[in-house]
Amino acid sequence: MTMTDTAADRLGSASSGNALELRGVTKLFGALAALTDINLTVRPGERRAVLGSNGAGKTTLFNCVTGDFLPTNGSIRLFGEDVTSFPPQERIRRGLRRTYQISLLFGGLSVIDNVYLACRGVSRGRFSMLRPRRNDTLMARAAELIEAVHMTPLKDTMVRNLAYGQQRQLEIALALSGAPRLILFDEPAAGLSPTERSELIAILMGLPGHIGYIIIEHDMDVALRVATSVSMMHNGRIFKEGSPEEIENDPEVQELYLGGGHG
Question: What pTM, to 2 d.p., does this model score?
Answer without folding.
Answer: 0.86
